[in-house]
């Protein structure tokens, strides 16, 4: 498994170090993509354990949960415990989706819809088998970033959980990248409209290429440069 586009050599320690330094940015962009308008300093304050004014406590908890899920992911990676399994995804969702999703810590037990599209996600009883098939399909791809991006958008499309699906997909995507020594992808909140439009198109058509191109365009050139330094 290689990075066939940027030709970065895998370096787990460096990739993980860079991700840890971006924690506040990851959380800030993730919650803003969900329509929660926090500034970066506000997120940094929340992640330091201090509440901020002007925001609902429930919204602040969503940001705190996001930070806690990232820290859990970092811990798994440091202890070589990260795996792309339904069990790991549910454990992470128990943290990221706490008190936000209808159920957290397990796959959804009923039907869901996705706003803005006629696409209907699979029935709940199909989800365990779909998770396995999704993982197998991803790992057959020769390029590391193709694998990771596919995991993200497939998780979003299948809607394994009642809520927090796109965020969970990005956790699994980035866990896979970091576990293999490659830097994480962050979707900037300023590209929210483009992101939402392309996701809706993917839900309808299952055409992987436009989202793949978009996600790769979100890679920070500075991070790529640092990864390629010896």
What is the name of the CATH superfamily?
Fido-like domain
Enumerate the spans where pLDDT stays under 50 for 5 or more consecutive residues.
none
Shape verdict: globular
What is the β-strand count?
0
CATH architecture: Orthogonal Bundle
The name of the CATH topology is Fic-like fold
Question: Which percent band covers the strand fraction?
Answer: under 5%
What profile does the largest beta sheet have? none
- CATH top-level class: Mainly Alpha
Domain module count:
1
Helix/strand order, N-terminal first? HHHHHHHHHHH
Distance between the termini: 20 Å
Note down, in words, how this protein is organized.
With 230 residues, the protein is mainly α. It has a single domain, classed as Orthogonal Bundle (Fic-like fold). 59% of the residues lie in helices and 0% in strands. The chain is built from 11 helices and no strands. It has helices spanning 12-21, 23-33, 40-47, 57-78, 86-96, 127-139, 144-158, 165-179, 192-205, 209-217, 221-228. α2 (23-33) packs across α3, α5 packs across α8 (165-179) and α7 crosses α10. It starts with 11 loop residues before the first helix and ends with a helix. The model has no long low-confidence stretch (mean pLDDT 95).
